[in-house]
Amino acid sequence: MKSLKANEVTAYVNSKVLEITNTSVIIETEEGAQSLLASLVVLAIGSRSNNSLAAKLVDKYSVKVLGDASVVGKVLDGINLANKTALAI
């Protein structure tokens, strides 16, 4: 965060991206819609596990929940778990 502040990077939290164009990003914040000039856009999006489909299928099929559906984490951890699960089948 120190590097972001040192480089005067503005972070928009609790904002909704309405549109990304070749030269700008239009966002909606608590203050309303804003158009931001941008040559580069970095999205940091939160995630939550969602295994509702597995819950519906578990009574009929053998179900293995993998990756972010199981627990939100690092991509390599998800790939490793998928590999171990595939080898166990």
Estimate the global geometry from the Cα principal axes: elongated
User: Beta fraction of the residues?
Assistant: 15-25%
Q: For the terminal residues, how far apart are their CA atoms? A: 44 Å
Backbone structural class: alpha+beta
Largest sheet: 3 strands, antiparallel
Q: Averaged pLDDT, please?
A: 82
SSE pattern, N- to C-terminal: HEEEHHH
Tell me the number of strands.
3
What is the tally of helical segments?
Answer: 4
Percent of residues in helices comes to 25-40%
Rg from Cα: 19 Å
Total domain units: 2
State the strand order across the main sheet: 1-2-3
The poorly predicted ranges are: none
Summarize the structure.
The protein has 89 residues and is an alpha+beta fold. It is 33% helix and 19% strand.
Overview of the structural elements:
It comes from Paenibacillus brasilensis. InterPro entries: FAD/NAD-bd_sf. This protein has 89 residues and is α+β, with helices and mostly antiparallel strands. It has two domains: 2-37, no CATH class; 52-88, no CATH class. It has four helices and three strands; from the N terminus they run αβββααα. It has helices spanning 2-6, 52-57, 67-70, 75-88; strands at 16-20, 24-29, 32-37. A three-stranded antiparallel β-sheet has the order 1-2-3, with no helix packed on it. Strand 2 (24-29) and strand 3 (32-37) form a beta hairpin. The protein is elongated, with a radius of gyration of 19 Å. The relative contact order is 0.10.
